[in-house]
Specification:
The chain is built from seven helices and 22 strands. By secondary structure, it is of the alpha/beta class. The strands form six sheets. Strands 1, 2, 5, 6, 7, 8 and 21 form a seven-stranded mixed beta sheet that branches. 36% of the residues are buried. Bound molecules: flavin-adenine dinucleotide.
Amino acid sequence: MHEEELFDVTIIGGGPAGLFAAFYSGLREMKTKIIEFQPVLGGKVHVYPEKMIWDVGGLQPILGSQLIEQMVGQGMTFQPEVAFNEKVTSISKDEAGYFILHTAANRKHFTKTVILAIGGGILKPVKLEIEGAERFEITNLHYTVKSLARFKEKTILISGGGHSAVDWANELAPIAKKVFLTYRKENLKGHEADISRLANNGVECLLNTSIEKLIATPDHERIGTVLLKSNDNGEGFELSVDEVIINHGYERDKELLVNSEIKMDLWEHRISGSVMSGTSVPGIYAAGDVLHHDGKLHLIAGAFQDAANAVNQAKQYITPEANSSGMVSSHNDLFTQKNRDLMKHLYRQ
Ligand SMILES: Cc1cc2nc3c(=O)[nH]c(=O)nc-3n(C[C@H](O)[C@H](O)[C@H](O)COP(=O)(O)OP(=O)(O)OC[C@H]3O[C@@H](n4cnc5c(N)ncnc54)[C@H](O)[C@@H]3O)c2cc1C
């Protein structure tokens, strides 16, 4: 007897991979649960709600926040159970062969199969290591860009040299008064095309340069000036700013992968899996950024394919004689009534 209900599939993580897995498992008539650490669904896309996303198949450019809405809407089509604010810390198996997912709050979830859609783990931005910096987090020191509007006509300093920093410099340049990008090394790490766009967008790159000190405005409330230090000659110079954005990457909470009672083969901080989304443990599958194999595409588009593969594998784990893949939408009985309703709505307009 289980203290909790038994599910066919439990998806850990409610980002793009987890949401599409929830949709697809509903399509395959599996009893589905999502467990998400955050109080919301959407995963890492919440880091860039106002970024324009161009590379999701079949979609015209779409804002991150709009994509979240679309993905959540699709993910909830078959009304999976969703457990928010729960961090899965370990996976074990009971005597009946079912998986038990243990959470940080000592809850147990019982499931026949598991899909790990945990992205890079639970992400926390790497904070600026300058004493007292945290007091500016309520005014003009940012670790994510939640609203483009607040950066309009502002002088912005972005610190970081990876994709995220380069992306934000390009996104903000057209609306900002001026964007400076400081990076402690000589070469930025973003995509080549994005790095070329920096110059076209008028972004001033301060390479081999680091933030040394944040100097407050006279009312002590905001950062007014940033003291930057050249790593070439140690010389410092001051820059007046309105907003400072830090993109120094993320600390990953990898407790689940490292401490799980059931161990899975890993590749660095990811799961070493198969092109069909299998892991080294039968019954446990992986989808999205957490999955590693030679053909893996680390984009939202790639997460969708992993998710469908993972669900199809989970379905056959539970019911070996089941079809290896789901029916396309047009041939699926589950959509017949929904299609009728949608058509009625479409032709009424
Ligand atoms: C700044 C930025 C810009 C990007 N731009 C693009 C773009 O333009 N196009 C594109 O295709 N991709 C882009 N990406 C990448 C894209 O966001 C990721 O590929 C995608 O989010 C991966 O989806 P996922 O579901 O695998 O993981 P995630 O989105 O990371 O979701 C994982 C979820 O799992 C949860 N979780 C983790 N561990 C646990 C646990 N132990 N218990 C419970 N819940 C847990 C997390 O809280 C999170 O909600 C961008 C990424 C960043 C950072």
